[in-house]
Amino acid sequence: MSEGARNTRRFYGASSSGAGGSASYRDGGGGIGVPPPARSSDVNTGILDENVLALVFRCINFDPKALCTVSCVSRRLRAVAERVLWRELCVSRAPRMVASLTGGGLPPGAPPPPPGRIVGGWPALAKLLLFCCGAASASVPGHFTAVSRFSKTSGRSFLARRCRGDLLYVSDPCEHAVPGGADDDVGAYRGVFRGFMRSRTRACLVGKQAALEARVRCPYCGARVWSMVAAGLVPRSAWRRLGAYEGRLEYYVCVSGHLHGNCWLARLTSSDGEHDGGGGGGDDSEDDDDASTDGGSDGGRAAA
The whole model's pTM is what? Predict the structure, then answer.
């Protein structure tokens, strides 16, 4: 036996006995004594670090179409998108709103804290910020929005008197002409509760034993929904805030706390300008939050 063969047997013998080596040395691609590359099931294996991905998407303003495309490449990239990128998109679009939903109110001038978990998931919240769900009852399709404004001042108008302690962000209605030449316009709106599982609104729904809708699902997270109209929890201030015909309103809340609905908008005259002030709790503009959603398009795919 050659001297090289004897040395090889000594290395293998040492690794198998646990003295000074490891059995993995036998598999090394770099020769005896060189361990192989570590095998790991970590989600970041084989792709760039998630912080680098976040920086890349920040440079393109977290374009939702690009983010949807990346999420479809592989399960690993989808996992990173759901854990990091959709959250960063929400923070970049509506930092005060996200801070309020995840960590309570902020003192004036204070930087927002790192966001925690959000009920329903970050992709659902990102879709809610970016996507108008339209109105199925009026054959109005959903679409990406250019800019949406979410306000918790408006949200108070959608809460029954006994539920006024809840915090709810609601968007301004997105106006659509009804297809088929009808003379009416339909407004589609959406919103989200903070801490819905502990909210008075949910407690009222459970206390009334309100039934979940059989044919309607949340367009943002796919969960089942309650009809607030059927439960008798729609205050008159909601119609006034929206500028809608009374009684011609749909209003749903899902079990995750996402809100969506639509209404038939009343024709306004110059003397009707005060409808927006009813039930809103006064002028509280510092509590409002504008969510800029530039970068979407009508042909884009919504956050899945």
Answer: 0.73
Instruction: State the Cα–Cα distance between residues 256 and 120, nearest whole angstrom.
Output: 5
> Taking the CA of residue 162 as centre, how many other CA atoms within 13 Å lie in the half-sphere pointing to its CB?
10
- Which residues face 26 on adjacent strands? none
- Strands 224-227 vs 168-171: parallel, antiparallel or unpaired: unpaired
Structure tokens at 186: 């339909």
Q: Are 279 and 157 in contact (CB under 8 A)?
A: yes
The rounded distance, in Å, linking the Cα atoms of 52 and 46 is 14
- Structure tokens given for 241: 């805030």
pLDDT tens digits, one per residue of 2-31: 565 555 455 445 444 444 444 433 344 444
Contact (CB, 8 A) for 229 and 143: no
Q: For residues 281 and 147, is the Cβ–Cβ distance under 8 A? A: no
On the question of pLDDT at 147 being above 60, the answer is yes
Q: Which of 33-42, 101-110, 278-287 has the lowest mean pLDDT?
A: 278-287
What is the secondary structure of 114-130 as a DSSP string?
PP---TT-HHHHHHHHH
**φ, ψ of residue 280 in degrees (nearest 5):** -90, -5
pLDDT over 60 (residue 290): no
CB-based contact 196:202 (threshold 8 Å): yes
Q: Cα 192 from chain centroid?
A: 9
In this structure, what token pair is assigned to residue 153?
Answer: 């001042």
Whole-number mean pLDDT of the chain?
77
- 166-224 pLDDT, tens digit per residue, is 999 999 999 998 877 666 789 999 999 999 999 999 999 999 999 999 999 999 999 99
Quickly count: other Cβ atoms within 10 Å of residue 79's Cβ: 14
Q: Rounded distance, CA 171 to CA 155, Å?
A: 8
| Residue 76: closest CA among 117, 127, 42 | 42
CA atoms within 13 A of residue 259's CA, in its CB half-sphere: 28
Residues 136, 49: Cα–Cα separation, whole Å: 41
Q: Which residue in the block uniquely carries the two structure tokens 């205050």?
A: 235
